[in-house]
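Hello forum,

I keep getting stuck at the same step: I have a sequence, I want structure tokens, and every attempt I make locally crashes halfway through. Rather than fight my setup again tonight, could one of you with a working pipeline run this one for me? It's a single chain of 1453 residues.
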Amino acid sequence: MEPTIKVLDNALRGDFGALSVLEKTASIYILDATNGLNATPITYGCWNFLNQALTEVERYEQQQQKQLYNLQSSQHGPHHGHSVMPSLESHVQLLCSMSRKAARRPPPSDRRLIGICLSNAAKSYGNQLLSTPEAQKQMMDLNCQTRERVMGRIAAMVFDFSFHPSSTGNINTTTRGQFQSAFSNPVAMEGLCAILSANAISNGPSSIKEFVMDWIVPSVKHLPPFAVACIVLHLAKEVMEKSAPYGTEQELQNLSIAVVGNVLGPLLVDALRESDESNDNNNNNLNLTGSSFSSSSVKVLTRNQRLATISLQALERWCCATNMNFVHLNHICNSTQINIVEVISDALYSHNDFILDAAAEFLATLLQQDNSTTSVVEQTTTTTTKDLSNHHYFLNELATAIGLQRFRFMERQAIGDNGTCRCLSRIASTIAISFRRNVTSDDDKEENIPDGLLDILLKATSHSVLNVSSIAIDALNFLLQSSAPHAQNVALSNRFLPILQEKSIYPNSVLNELTSTNDNDEDEDMTMTTSGDTNNTHRTTGTTTTTESFQEFNEFRQNCLAEALCSCYIMNPQLYLESSANALESLCNSTSQINNQPTVTSTSQIEGVLFCLGVVSVEVTKKVTLTKQQQKGEEALLFQNPPQDSSSSSNNTENLLNRCILALASAPSHPTSNPLTLAQMCNFLGKYADLIASESEESQSQIQMQTPKSNIILDSAADLSLRSFKLASTAFRDNKQTKNIMDKMSVSPFAEAAIALRNILSRKPSHFTTSHALTALAGAWESAYCDSSTTLSKSSLGEKTPVYRVEDRKAISSGICRVLASLPSEQWVASLIALSRPTIENLEIAIRKADDLMLRHTTRRSGNDVSSSSASKDVLLNGILSRAAEEIVLLSTMTKTFNESTLIPQASGTTPAPAISVTFMNNKNPNNQDQHKILPEEEGEKGPPKDHPSLALLRASWPCLSHLAKKYSSFDQINESLGEFLESSVSSSPGKNNKPHTNSVSMIDHHGNGISILKELCDMAATITSVLTNNQLHNHDSSSSPLTPIFPFIIRVLETYGQEAELIKNNPSTNSPPVVASSSQIIEIRLIIKRLLTITVESMSSSVGQLWLSPPTILYGKKKENKNDHQQQQKQGQNPYECPSSPEQHEDKLSSPSHQPLQFSMNSVFMLPPTSASGESGGGKNTSTGAENNNNNDTLRSQKNNRNKSAESLSRFFDILSCCIEKCPNLLINLERQFGDNQEGLLQKSVSVAILVMVEKEIDIARSSMIFLKSLIDLRYKLLSCKTMDMMVEEVKPSALSSSNTIQLEDYMITHVITSRIRNNLIEKLLLGSFGNFSRESLDSAALLLLSLLRKEPPHDDNDNVDDDEEEKDVNTAVLNICRGFSRNQQFVLGEGALTITMGVLQQCSDEKIPSDYLIEFLTDIWDMHQTDDIGSLAGGNVVKRFEEKYKVLLSS
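Reply #2:
Ran it on my machine without issues. Output:
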């Protein structure tokens, strides 16, 4: 192959080098000086490559055509020892895609790129021939001539009829022996037309007018219709691109009459007429082949069908680009004797999916245009009749036309033409939505939608294929939601609801997929017999069966179907609930009469009814709650008009729900015979737990009976949930079909049962404090551990997956804890210990097994027998520790839930739980199992208040937890579970005067003797961190666990105790100055927080390595800028950020105000050791074996693992610093020099790292670093605005200041120095990041940080030494200098007008005249404009001009 074809061929094969060549060729120019020193160099770019490629393709096809002729002349034919040259269709298509990017670049941008190329070549090689302006102009003119020559060649091919098939048959096939050029392929031809259109748009409005009025319109009858339609299509597409020059959109509007009336209209009419004839031929041929509908016939696309499709697409894009509505289009078409309504009606009768899709898209765009827009079309034409000027007239015409299609819809559905049905459903939905929007927006009185339109939508809703029915369901749902309930909507809802209820049932095709097994034997009780089932028909259409997967059907139900069901409930709630209750009672009663053996069909129908009830649970609960509030006289809480008979409505709703629960309780074997039905029943009970519990509470307060009816309902719901949860260990074990169903379910039925039971127990825990209920709950909890205990007692731990997941046990333990918290306080300790005993026993077993396994492995290693034991040890140990981690999570749930439950009585004025007064004195020997069961004091013992009940649980579990922290915290699962346990042990809700609760597990005792529990928790956190830090420093393997699970505990401690540990205490109730807090309790808390911060900093130094140990010192001035720093180099195809750089160069990049935005990779940020391709990290000869290569690959994976962990740790670290600034800023600043060297302290080093990683693509790092910097900036203003600053800024001696004033003055000076040094640098980097370099999700944080940086300090008093005018001058001058630097270094590509707007917006931000939402929107608009392939052509474009006009208006207002 020749050079360009070879590059294209390699690129199609996925070669990275070839793809890079194509990308660079379309983006830059290079200097070709290979002709010798004395020859004149030339530039080489996309146009040279395209010109050469076209020549090579033509030469290749000449050889191909010659070979084909020789093969035809040969007697042996093409398959006798001859190889046929392959076609270049794919190569040409790739060439068109690459060239269109360059065609979008306007000629001035081409000249600029050539100028950059020549400038860099002259500076690098000193070629004197390029230094003169004449030589540079000659190069640019030569490139322009090459571009025009290439466009001429492409135009010649596009308008050459020999490249367009003349046959009316399928244009994708050719007759045997007939040569077809690669350029004649429709996709390639459309690509060539797109190049011509993009080139015309990029040259400006005059070029478009010349191209259309001098070439297309006069010669439309003599040009290939397909090429003309493609050119018009891409003209409209390109004018909507961000790089389109200013004025092209207006020019397109000026050309609308000529293009639509004289080009697109006639092309569309002729193409539709001829495609109808081909449709008739296809239908005749179809009848000859058989009665069934052939799906392959739909995919046949003739020349006329393709032309009709392209013409509709071009008309749609033209209307969208020029904002042309139906009235404007009709004016133009009438001038050329074209009835656009008839044309659209003809398109609707096409059997081709492509034409129908294009027609649907055209109508959707046309009907969404703003009717109030005044365009050139409206200015140059006049309306002839009142109806034609009325948009409603066209909607009625279209509604009538699509309504007549309902008979055709049924015809196509009968023969299995799902494509046509889908298109008709989409068109009907578009017209119906537009009809409702336009009629209701213009008239106060709603106009009824035509019945024919509603009929076809309802027929489409009942279609068996989800792709058809979901479109119609969404449309009908919109009709119900967009207007108030009136006669037509209620009637529509009543017709709509039965169809939706039927669609909610799992079809047999999905059930067959779920129950399909590889074995031939099937269980009799799960047979798929559906005789007599008329509600759930098999989805067959002719001889073609359409099935959806289980996942697809679930997504359809949860999204599309659920919203429509809610709309039907709002329209008629009584009918909705009554029909569901009747159906459920009928199904439960009927199935119970057939020997208690329900079929799959009946259980599926029960599941569907329960699903319909579950999706409206929020609406039902809201309606009942509002009704009850109205009955109590709380009308102020009502935000809607209540029903007229609200009391009876509420009672009816509750009665209907009670009927459903009693029906399920009367036949419990029916829902439990199918896992899908069982899960849906539990989901239903969990969602309605609020109503069930509230009804029971009201009835019990009104009727003094032991077992009122409402309590029967509550007991029945709890019994169903409890029974379902206990089925996990017995049900569905030996049935292969049900196992397949459960494997494919996203949530198991036992998980739903656990959630339902938790909700019921949590809503009314006092009801379940009877001995009978507690016994039943204890049995359920023991059943959850039957399978777990069996697995733990076996040596094969880790190989068997427990039936009850940890989430299920968390849910049920949470509900039981709330019940136990409702018991008398003297029973709390014993009950909580009984609940936690199985958990602690399993934890002890896991520790023993892990220790034994490690001991055996150590013995084998000492005997040099490690060949096969290492891998098996890792598998078993991970399994053991995973189970241990689950038990720790359960302990965390018990602790947290019980604490929250015991805090509730304190709010109502009752006696709170006792405080903690004991430290963990038994943490001596973790392996002594007797110490694991230390019980609290006897109940009858008298003395001081008893300990908090959770303390007994902590006593019993603490030795196990400490042992795991010391020995196994390097494993991820143990680390994460211990972090969750530590976090749950700290109070999260504030008490009186925003202080921590005195009954929190981690709070001080009732005597004020210390905070021993918090100390123990911090000791465990320190132990875990020490283990992880040592592991990271010495091992560097993938088993290094992240530090992030400990950081949430530190954040929780800071949130809870940070204000208590603050150095300075302000008294907001008085005007007295702040004082230094120095009580023993506060000092102790302060020491604990200091220790936690020390742990954090030490862990960060080991986690992120060189980034923290030696960050770039950006706070101590800037290096002198080198004039060569901003040369735009092209070094071996590298981007600027790809060039090699050492860590020392980061300082220059950060401090230089005109440097391009930094693009750091995680490798460079976290300073990972370099690794060669072969796995070597250093020089020398590679002599590694295969095993060593595997180890090297493992090393690479571990490095990537550690990099991700370090990134997450860094994000959490900034969160900790932000929390410190909010809760205890004085304490944090007091630690400024504690962790630093002689140059930078903690804050300064953190600021340096934050600015460095702010440009990271990892969203969490970028956002957390920005939030930290914003908190620090805001702290400066907060300290400055304090009332005591008036005293601090006075000229007094330092000895005259109090200690608190001295601390605040020092804090202000430190923050002032740091923020002043980073302000200009940070403003510049935030603006550069908004130029498309930040991630979209971090723009809001960047805008808030920028707004804080631009704020001015509050005005000082008259005797201050600081000049307010100087402060304002500094901010405005900094913004002005930064923006000028952008313009000087060509970093701002939107033009001078947009730069002026940007400076105006920033200056108004400094004057505090712009809110944060405004700045977020501003930066988002700038970021969006940079999301294009060629940002160099943005200046002066339509998008930039609209941006300037938008913010000029906002700035002036």
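The radius of gyration is 38 Å. If your local run keeps crashing, start a new thread with the error log.
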